[in-house]
Amino acid sequence: MNGIPDHLERGLSVVFIGFNPSLRSGETGHHYANPRNNFWRILHQSGLTPRLYQAAEDGDLLQLGYGFTNIVARPTKGIEDITRDEYAEGRRMLREKLVIYRPRIACFVGKGVYTEYSRRRQADWGFQPDPLLPFTHEFVAPSSSGLVRMPMEEIVGIYRQLNEYLRDSD
């Protein structure tokens, strides 16, 4: 199964970075397409989007200043199916994308995504000190997977911090 296309362009406010596409995303060609994934609800409830978007509208979020990519392009059933070599190549490619497109904020959708990218052992929620690239803020948000056990309101609250930063810095 092929990867799904990135939605990237220069000057974005936020690029959301996931581990890799789900099998459902691979089938549909859209980010966060698994119906058990809460990504679109989280964006709306946190105020990052003015309405509830569907996965098929992922390209439309470029108009809001939001883009999408993954650290690994290959769709899998779960992250346990991603190889060390894929992560190494994904880190290199992700860094290149961030250098080329220079988003204001790289939002890592899950601590594991950030630790794979940064090679740091741990991270707190929110903005990270000492970003790897000086022109992009790094923000770590909870995974939107339906498997996450964190209460939805807590997850939404962390994404709301990102929304407040964007609103206050404009």
TrEMBL record:
In the UniProt record, does the keyword Amino-acid biosynthesis occur? no
The lineage's top-level taxon is Bacteria
InterPro entries per the record? MUG/TDG, Uracil-DNA_glycosylase-like, Uracil-DNA_glycosylase-like_sf
Identify the species of origin.
Paenibacillus zeirhizosphaerae
Gene3D superfamilies registered for this protein in UniProt:
Uracil-DNA glycosylase-like domain (3.40.470.10)
Question: Sorted alphabetically, which keywords does the UniProt record give?
Answer: DNA damage, DNA repair, Hydrolase
Q: Which residues form the Uracil-DNA glycosylase-like domain?
A: 8-154
Signal peptide positions on this chain: none
**Which PANTHER family does the UniProt record give?**
G/T AND G/U MISMATCH-SPECIFIC DNA GLYCOSYLASE, G_T MISMATCH-SPECIFIC THYMINE DNA GLYCOSYLASE
This chain's protein is named Mismatch-specific DNA-glycosylase
